[in-house]
Amino acid sequence: MKKITPEESAQMPIKGTGNSSQFYKAIISLHIGEVLFISKKEFTLSRSPARICRTIMKRFPDVKYRFGEVADGSGWKVERLEVKKP
Asked: With b meaning 16 or more CB within 10 Å and e meaning fewer, what string describes 56-82?
């Protein structure tokens, strides 16, 4: 353990939590009608994209997605849906 300078600190970014992963950010930034394809080769998290979508929908009730694994098994598709308000 040692103290470091501000310059050294700038060279060492802090690793983010799952909610700041590139996949979480890409999914939450989708606009209504946009579709995102995530290939299995590039997906490195332990939680599936479906789990990320459910977490976002639970946290933000005005955000809805249609999501699932692509039939050929190559990855996942996530589509942002419009929320119908009563």
From this structure: bbeeeeebbbebeeeeeeebbbbbbee
Give the single-character DSSP code of 3. -
Tokens of 26: 């890409």
pLDDT given for residue 17 in this prediction: 62
At position 65, the amino acid (one-letter code) is Y
Residue 27: how many other CB atoms lie within 10 Å: 22
User: What is the C-alpha separation between 43 and 82, in angstroms, rounded?
Assistant: 26
pLDDT tens column, 4-43:
898 988 888 776 665 678 889 899 999 999 999 999 999 8
Q: Round to whole Å and give the CA distance between 83 and 78.
A: 15
First to last CA, the chain: 57
